[in-house]
């Protein structure tokens, strides 16, 4: 049988800088001696994290430290290790030994015992180098030399010319994570390192090079599900008399098939009685173990194991009957889905710090917000196995971009070959995951070429990536993966004859809201599918507290502005809040009010958009919010920020937007949309069962009096919406003192003011609040209103940085109570702080107080 590989990440590694580099003078003098001698390194890892561990680099997430680390990305770095081989050991008795490098970031030369064995210029692909002739008994030296990325960009620019792109650097001229060079939510931290596992694999006779596993499902007329397992294996070596055996097991089902081996071997197996994999919003997630054994008559040559699920995925693009549009929606196991999604970016600027446990926690946080799809954005990476495993298990679908974003990409060599190798590698690697439901060609590149006037920019007349989106990627997927649909881009109309960001075809991005227009302008759109839209808000207080000194905690401070990467970001925040809430100041004394107002504005804006799209369910079939997560402490579009706690552990804290997503993406939603003098109450059911919606529509004054009401009773089938037109009677109370209240079984209560909050006659906040800590340490806070309270929110992290409340933005009428349940420990001696500002806030605080000034 093939021998187990040697995990070289377990060896002792050293990191050195090349003192003959042209950028050596940029290295801080205090670090030069140690970097010449070498410092301990971690593999997988990257230079920045090794330097921080050695005390040679300040944490770039804190304060202004980001500005002091450009020198790191300008050096030549060498990772070296020594591994011993015993005489008669498998590495020296095998006829072949491969050095498998799953990820090298990015311009790398690999040497074994001082001799070069290969080079890589692509972070996104695996490299395999044959090294058997270079190995010897005793110590063997492995070196990986990383040249800086920026000179490589300059070389490619000299050879191929520049092409349009966003941001500062020509990131489109290197196959490296685009946001490594900075983005409008992330710092410029140009990494290098062995970022994925590296191993030695001895083998003789033959081996499996790569395997793709696809599980699909169909339901027979008698209701029984039949799964089809399709395996494609890429083999090498002596294949005469060899065979491939595929076994699948799970859920009481077992099956097996054998086929003769060839360079490319395909095996298909039908299994009756499987249980289908569903997104969590529609069903369960049964998974099956697959073993692929490569053998000849006398021995097992190689084997791999995968885990998969059985499901069918279609992309419905049926043209409208009137010819003026087309459906765009996912169909899973024959059921049309309204996608309740969020965009995913790398969860850390240093992606090797993201552990399987962290992936699992983040995807659980997404699921807890009723998110059923994550779109892996094309400016990041093809994620690690742990990400997709968690999505498989938790029932969160994945829309996977190929890694191209916001730029024109050259199609000349070496890029075409690198893109082909990268795509082959990742399509094969990710094939088994049932959660992966869409391949997407790029992020905003078709849109950029068509509508951002790239043709008028330097390099606009050169190749720009069209060949990848319409030729290379679809051809490779036709060869390697027909189990899931492909779409050329986000946004894309699906036709070169129709504008790519057309609201009535394909998927669209909506960014004039936030950039120029008020969030109520979402009303101007009735799209078929929105794959990007969003609104900014600052990180939580506890995250800022670890990243910014108290004196710098002000919206207008140099430090906070350094953690705001969007061009004109704070101006857009101020512009957007006008007419909705009071504009807070930007000084240190205003920081609490600024945080609350801007976070609340973000939550409301995004919820407004989601409810708009869901209110047109059927015409619109998806909403993917920008964005779920952050990669450092920042003011951004994320629902989850990224900070640390006292132990230095990463923490993704929930902003008010997270709670808004949970509400707006709930299975049953009641949302009010203005329709002239009337209201359109859209009752949306994306749950698993029919919804018998019963309750009441009320017009109330702020003192709680019901001035007009109407009973509601509607049957809402699964995966559908029902509209109810309501025209309230006139009441002799100013609109600024009125609220609409819709209460329905199975749905969150809806409270909507008839005017914007800033114009409402909100009373001064009067309430009672009591904190209770049980003997087991559980904490609750009960708020009882004496006056109408608007958007009551408990920021538990103001008292204990790891604590968070189970709910937020609660409206209470006089006499009503709400109990917040606190997750995370709060010292009993501090619990009383949860009952007053700055932890306990309502809009009454800022709006009424501002009028009294």
UniProtKB/TrEMBL annotation:
It catalyses: Hydrolysis of terminal, non-reducing beta-D-mannose residues in beta-D-mannosides. GO terms for biological process: carbohydrate metabolic process; glycoprotein catabolic process. Belongs to the glycosyl hydrolase 2 family. The keyword Iron does not apply. Keywords: Glycosidase, Hydrolase. Residues 265-311 form the Glycoside hydrolase family 2 immunoglobulin-like beta-sandwich domain. Residues 38-196 form the Beta-mannosidase-like galactose-binding domain. The keyword S-adenosyl-L-methionine does not apply. Its EC number is 3.2.1.25. This is beta-mannosidase. One of its GO terms (molecular function) is beta-mannosidase activity. It comes from Micropruina glycogenica.
């Amino acid at each position: 049988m093939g021998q187990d590989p040697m995990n070289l990440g377990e060896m002792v590694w050293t990191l050195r800088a090349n003192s003959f580099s042209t950028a050596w003078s940029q290295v801080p003098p205090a670090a030069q001696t140690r970097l010449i001698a070498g410092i301990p390194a971690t593999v997988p890892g990257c230079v920045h994290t090794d330097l921080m561990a050695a005390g040679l680099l300040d944490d770039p997430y804190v304060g202004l430290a980001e500005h002091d680390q450009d020198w790191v990305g300008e050096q030549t770095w060498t990772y070296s290790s020594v591994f011993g081989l015993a005489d008669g050991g498998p590495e020296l008795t095998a006829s072949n030994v491969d050095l498998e490098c799953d990820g090298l970031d990015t311009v790398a030369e690999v040497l074994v015992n001082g001799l070069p064995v290969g080079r890589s210029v692509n972070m996104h692909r695996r490299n395999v180098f044959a090294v058997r002739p270079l190995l010897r008994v005793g110590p063997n030296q492995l070196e990986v030399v990383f040249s800086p990325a920026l000179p490589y960009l300059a070389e490619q620019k000299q050879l191929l010319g520049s092409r349009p792109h966003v941001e500062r650097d020509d990131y489109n001229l290197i196959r490296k994570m685009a946001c490594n060079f900075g983005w409008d939510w992330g710092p410029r931290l140009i990494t290098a390192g062995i970022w994925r596992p590296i191993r030695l694999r001895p083998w003789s006779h033959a081996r499996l090079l790569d395997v793709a596993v696809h599980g699909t499902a169909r339901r027979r007329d008698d209701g029984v599900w039949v799964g089809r397992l399709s395996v494609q294996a890429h083999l090498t070596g002596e294949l005469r008399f060899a065979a491939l055996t595929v076994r699948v097991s799970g859920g009481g089902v077992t099956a097996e098939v054998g086929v003769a081996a060839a360079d490319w071997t395909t095996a298909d197996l039908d299994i009756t009685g499987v249980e289908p994999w569903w997104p969590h919003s529609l069903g369960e997630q049964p998974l099956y173990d697959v073993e692929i054994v490569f053998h000849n008559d006398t021995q097992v040559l190689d084997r791999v194991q995968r885990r998969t699920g059985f499901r069918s995925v279609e992309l419905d693009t049926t043209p409208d009957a009137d010819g003026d549009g087309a459906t765009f929606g996912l169909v899973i196991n024959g059921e049309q889905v309204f996608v309740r999604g969020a965009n995913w970016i790398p969860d850390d600027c240093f992606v090797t710090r993201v552990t399987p446990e962290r992936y699992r926690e983040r995807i659980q946080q997404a699921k807890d917000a009723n998110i059923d799809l994550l779109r892996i954005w094309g400016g990041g990476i093809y994620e690690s196995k742990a990400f997709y495993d968690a999505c498989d298990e938790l029932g969160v679908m994945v829309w996977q971009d190929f890694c191209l974003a916001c730029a024109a990409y050259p199609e000349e060599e070496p890029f075409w070959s690198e893109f082909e190798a990268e795509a082959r590698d990742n399509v094969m690697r990710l094939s088994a995951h049932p959660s992966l439901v869409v391949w997407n060609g790029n992020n905003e590149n078709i849109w950029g070429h068509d509508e951002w006037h790239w043709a008028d920019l330097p390099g606009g007349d050169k190749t720009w990536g069209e060949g990848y989106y319409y030729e290379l990627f679809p051809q490779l997927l036709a060869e390697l993966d027909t189990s899931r649909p492909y779409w050329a881009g986000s946004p894309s109309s699906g036709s070169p004859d129709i504008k790519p960001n057309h609201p009535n075809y394909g998927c669209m991005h909506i960014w004039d809201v936030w950039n120029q227009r008020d969030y109520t302008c979402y009303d101007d759109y009735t799209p078929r599918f929105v794959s990007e839209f969003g609104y900014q808000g600052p990180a939580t207080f506890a995250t800022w507290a670890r990243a910014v000194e108290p004196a710098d905690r002000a919206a207008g401070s140099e430090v906070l502005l350094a953690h705001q990467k969007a061009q004109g970001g704070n101006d857009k925040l101020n512009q957007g809040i006008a007419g909705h809430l009071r504009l807070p100041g930007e000084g240190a004394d205003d920081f609490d009010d600024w945080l609350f107002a801007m976070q609340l504005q973000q939550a409301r804006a995004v919820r407004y958009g989601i409810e708009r799209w869901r209110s047109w369910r059927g015409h619109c079939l998806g909403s993917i919010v920008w964005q779920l997560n952050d990669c450092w402490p920042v003011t951004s579009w994320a629902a989850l920020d990224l900070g640390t706690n006292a132990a230095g552990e990463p923490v993704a804290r929930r902003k008010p937007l997270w709670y808004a997503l949970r509400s707006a993406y709930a299975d049953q939603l009641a949302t009010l949309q203005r329709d002239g003098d009337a209201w359109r109450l859209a009752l949306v059911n994306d749950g698993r069962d029919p919804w018998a919606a019963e309750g009441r529509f009320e017009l109330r004054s702020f003192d709680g009096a019901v001035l007009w009401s109407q009973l509601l009773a509607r049957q809402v089938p699964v995966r559908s919406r029902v509209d109810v037109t309501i025209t309230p009677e006139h009441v002799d109370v100013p609109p600024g003192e009125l609220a609409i209240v819709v209460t329905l079984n199975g749905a969150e209560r809806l409270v909507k003011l008839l005017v914007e909050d800033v114009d409402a006659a909100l009373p001064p906040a009067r309430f009672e609040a009591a904190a209770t800590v049980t003997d087991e340490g559980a904490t609750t806070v009960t708020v009882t209103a004496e006056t109408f309270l608007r958007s009551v929110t408990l920021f538990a992290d103001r008292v204990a940085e790891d604590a968070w409340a189970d709910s937020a933005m609660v409206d209470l009428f006089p006499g009503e109570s709400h109990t917040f349940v606190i997750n995370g420990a709060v010292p009993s001696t501090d619990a009383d702080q949860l009952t007053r500002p700055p932890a306990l806030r309502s809009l009454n605080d800022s709006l009424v107080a501002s009028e009294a000034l």
